UniProtKB/TrEMBL annotation:
Belongs to the eukaryotic ribosomal protein eL14 family. InterPro entries: KOW, Rib_uL2_dom2, Ribosomal_eL14, Ribosomal_eL14_dom, Translation_prot_SH3-like_sf. It holds the Pfam family KOW. Keywords: Ribonucleoprotein, Ribosomal protein. Residues 56-131 form the Large ribosomal subunit protein eL14 domain. This is 60S ribosomal protein L14. The keyword tRNA processing does not apply. PANTHER family: 60S RIBOSOMAL PROTEIN L14, LARGE RIBOSOMAL SUBUNIT PROTEIN EL14. Residues 15-45 form the KOW domain. The keyword Phosphoprotein does not apply.
Length: 146
């Protein structure tokens, strides 16, 4: 009898893991872990292609960031700015983040927060119409089946 050992599904704090800022002046920006300082702090840098999304290299507490599922594979520890930027672009971090469900949900909720009262009303009416059509289709399928 043999036992197989598998790793957990948790996101690990590791060099190359991309993080999302949840607080502070860089809220909503992405950065990569470059070095692990101790069990509570990491050294990060975000070499984004967009100038408004760049995060300078600095130490930050892990309580101020969220670990994303995006990882830059085989990033050397304490790699410099040029090496990190090249690995960032090669891994397509921004593209994979924009395609993730997490980023799409954040985008959707930020759009919803900016709606006016009348626009929220129109969204409610459209959702009611869609729900009515779905229920009508389900009811027709149920009667055809019986």
């Amino acid at each position: 009898m043999s036992a197989s050992v598998t790793t957990s599904a948790w996101r690990n704090v590791e060099v190359g893991r991309v993080v999302l800022f949840s607080t502070g002046p860089f809220t909503g920006r992405l950065a990569a872990i470059v070095e692990i300082i101790d069990h509570k702090r990491v050294l990060i840098e975000g070499p984004s292609s967009k100038p408004e999304a760049v995060v300078p290299r600095h130490a930050i507490s892990l309580s101020h960031v969220s670990l994303t599922p995006v990882v830059i594979e085989k990033l050397p520890r304490a790699s410099g700015h040029g090496a990190l930027k090249a690995a960032w672009e090669k891994a397509g971090v921004e593209k994979s983040w924009e395609n993730s469900a997490w980023a799409q949900n954040r985008e959707r909720s930020s759009k919803r927060k900016q709606l006016s009262d009348f626009e929220r009303f129109k969204v409610m009416r459209l959702r009611k119409q869609a729900r009515f059509e779905v229920r009508k289709t389900v009811a027709a399928a149920r009667t055809a089946k019986a």
